[in-house]
Structures are given as C-alpha cells and as structure tokens.
Amino acid sequence: MTYSRIIGTGSYLPDNVVSNQDLEKFVDTSDQWIQERTGIKQRHIASDGETTCDLAERAARNAMEAAGKGPKDIDLIVLATTTPDQVFPSTACLLQSRLDIHGCAAFDVQAVCTGFIYALGVADNFIRSGSARCALVIGAETFSRILNWEDRTTCVLFGDGAGAVVLEASDEPGILSTHLHADGDYANMLEVPDGVSKGYDRMRANAAFVEMRGAEVFKMAVNTLGRIVDETLEKNRLQKSDVDWLIPHQANIRIIHATARKLHMPMERVVVTVAEHGNTSAASVPLAFDTAVRDGRIQRGETLLMEAFGGGFTWGSVLARY
Ligand code: ACO
C-alpha cells in the first residue's frame, strides 16, 4: 500500500506588519474589540506589486529545502488560492516556471479558507493512486486585495501569507485520511459577489470585495468543525486522546477554542497563530503548521489533525502522522 508523507514544510509572510492600532487610524474599530472578538493583534499585508505567486515561491522554496528536494524531484504542484495573480495561467503554473520545474501537472484549487486542506486531499490521492511520487502543495493568498478597507466587519480579520509542504510516496503513513466537504447553498453568507463572468465592472474598478454574515458564519463554523472532528476520529478508529496536535484554520480564537474543547485538547497542544497572522485563508493552516515544526513543537511520529472551514461553504480535515 502506498501512502503520502509530509517530508518538509515552509512558509512566508510579507514584511509589512499592520497592527490593530494601525487600523484604528482609518477604520472605526479598536484594538480591544478586535482582540476580544477574534484574538487578532496584527496581520502581514503584501506591499504594492507583491503577488500571491511571490509569497508562494518563498514558501515553496523553504519547504523544498526542508524536504531536501530540488526542481527535478517534484512531479505535481497543487496550489490553493482565492487570490490568484491572473485569471490565467493558474498561479500553480506561474510558480512552476519560477521554480524551474517543467512538464508535471500544475493547477490551482479554489476552496477559500479550506483550500489547503482540499489541495492536500487532492495531492494525497494522486500519490496513493500512483499518479505522482513527490508533490508540492501550497496555500497562498494576497487576501488584502479583496478587502474593503472601509468595512470594519471584514477588513480587520484577514491577512496575507503563504505556506507549503512537500509530500512524498511512502510505504508507511503519512496521511491517514482526508475529509473534504462543501454545501453551495450557503454561498451568499461569505462571498466576493463579483468576478470575470458576473459583476465585471466592479472587478475592473477594483471594488470586488469580501462580504460576510459574520455571526451566522461563526455558528456554522463551530458546529461544522465539531462534526468533522468526530468524522475524522471515527474513520480512523481513534480516540480524542490519540491526537497530539490540532492545527486549525486561524479565523477566530473563539472558533479555535470551541474545536479544542470538542477534542478535550489543552490549548498547549493547539497551534495558534491567529494573533500574529490574522486569517490568511488558504495559507493559514500551512503557515501554522510550519511555525510549529520550525519552533520544535511538532515532532516526527506525532499525530496531527488539521481542519478548516470557509466560503462555499467548504470544510474539511486531514489526519496525518508526521
Ligand atoms: N470594530 C468595532 N466594532 C465592530 C467591528 C469592528 N471591526 N465589526 C463589527 N463591529 C460591531 C458591529 O457593528 C456590532 O455592533 P452593533 O451591536 O451596534 O450592531 C457589534 O460589533 C457586534 O457585531 P457582531 O457581528 O455580532 O460580532 P461578533 O461577535 O459576531 O464578531 C466576527 C464578529 C469576529 C466577524 C465573528 O462573527 C466571526 O469571527 N465570524 C466568523 C468569521 C469566519 O470564521 N469566517 C470563516 C472563514 S473566512 C473565509 O472563508 C474567507
């Protein structure tokens, strides 16, 4: 039986840090409100001209270095983003060229905040079916580009960044299971209502922005993530106590606390980066993952539960032995 194993992680954050106090200067908000409601203290924002592919490239190079892999080793690139550089080619193809990788399949996956979980699920299936041996999986966003900086209910929540992993075929697990879900009936609770084929004028005027019914999204996220924890453990016949680390999507510390409670997980075993990164959408899980690998918290052989919830609605989880 072939499994996929995570053999290297990497991440990258833009240099420009915007604190809650910085936001207070031009939005009707306060550091206290943002911290109490979300746990966010600051976020990194890409500079003018810095693109999703730029962030993805830095994260991918870090992950490939950690994995000890070069361009010739990679035979699949799956990149999750909601904020691609261009309509086409895909950001995965742009990245492929930057990394001097040629010929292998490269494509983007769009599942908003669940994007990285989807990308990991897709790459895991490619490897387990024998269609790929060594995959580069990235979550990268310049989410700041689709924020209305006059809408205090959304602009304080998000940030930019990228995270990546290298997956390799292995006789030993590896990724134990992936669980991907969506329900498009909830599309208008969290959306950018404009795009190329609809509302193009607003797109061209750089006025296509995130709109969110925050309180409803919050409730759905808490309930749905609770269910995905049960589904993941049942599928693997594991107990809550068998999970060493929870690596959640970093949207809101209160949602993270609720999922940790569901798992009976002390917060010391939950990777939390939301205070420093904000919600970086598809980049949030791999950014948190890489942070805890590089600071030595996550060790080889430990069992990791990654989960996310986002626009679509989409939601999913990955259970992996690191
Ligand atoms: N600063 C100050 N006050 C604010 C701000 C702000 N930035 N934003 C909203 N408020 C006000 C509101 O206007 C409201 O005032 P009112 O009572 O006078 O009407 C009050 O604060 C409470 O607003 P709520 O929306 O009820 O606040 P809530 O406690 O629900 O927190 C939040 C809002 C943080 C957005 C929360 O609902 C949340 O985290 N939702 C989920 C976000 C999420 O997880 N998204 C999913 C992933 S994102 C993706 O997929 C792209």
UniProtKB/TrEMBL annotation:
One Pfam family it belongs to: ACP_syn_III_C
GO annotation, biological process: fatty acid biosynthetic process
Enzyme type, top EC level: transferase
Keyword set includes Transferase: yes
Family annotation (SUPFAM superfamilies): Thiolase-like
All residue ranges annotated as the Beta-ketoacyl-[acyl-carrier-protein] synthase III C-terminal domain in the record: 233-322
Pathway noted in the entry: Lipid metabolism; fatty acid biosynthesis
Keywords: Acyltransferase, Cytoplasm, Fatty acid biosynthesis, Fatty acid metabolism, Lipid biosynthesis, Lipid metabolism, Multifunctional enzyme, Transferase
Molecular functions (GO terms): 3-oxoacyl-[acyl-carrier-protein] synthase activity; beta-ketoacyl-acyl-carrier-protein synthase III activity
Reaction(s) the record says it catalyses: malonyl-[ACP] + acetyl-CoA + H(+) = 3-oxobutanoyl-[ACP] + CO2 + CoA
EC assignment: 2.3.1.180
Compartment annotation: Cytoplasm
Span list, region ACP-binding: 250-254
Domain Beta-ketoacyl-[acyl-carrier-protein] synthase III N-terminal as annotated: residue spans: 107-184
Assembly with partners or alone: Homodimer.
Entry comment, domain topic: The last Arg residue of the ACP-binding site is essential for the weak association between ACP/AcpP and FabH.
Family the UniProt entry places it in: Belongs to the thiolase-like superfamily. FabH family.
Chain's role: Catalyzes the condensation reaction of fatty acid synthesis by the addition to an acyl acceptor of two carbons from malonyl-ACP. Catalyzes the first condensation reaction which initiates fatty acid synthesis and may therefore play a role in governing the total rate of fatty acid production. Possesses both acetoacetyl-ACP synthase and acetyl transacylase activities. Its substrate specificity determines the biosynthesis of branched-chain and/or straight-chain of fatty acids.
Protein name per its UniProtKB record: Beta-ketoacyl-[acyl-carrier-protein] synthase III
Organism encoding this protein: Sedimenticola thiotaurini
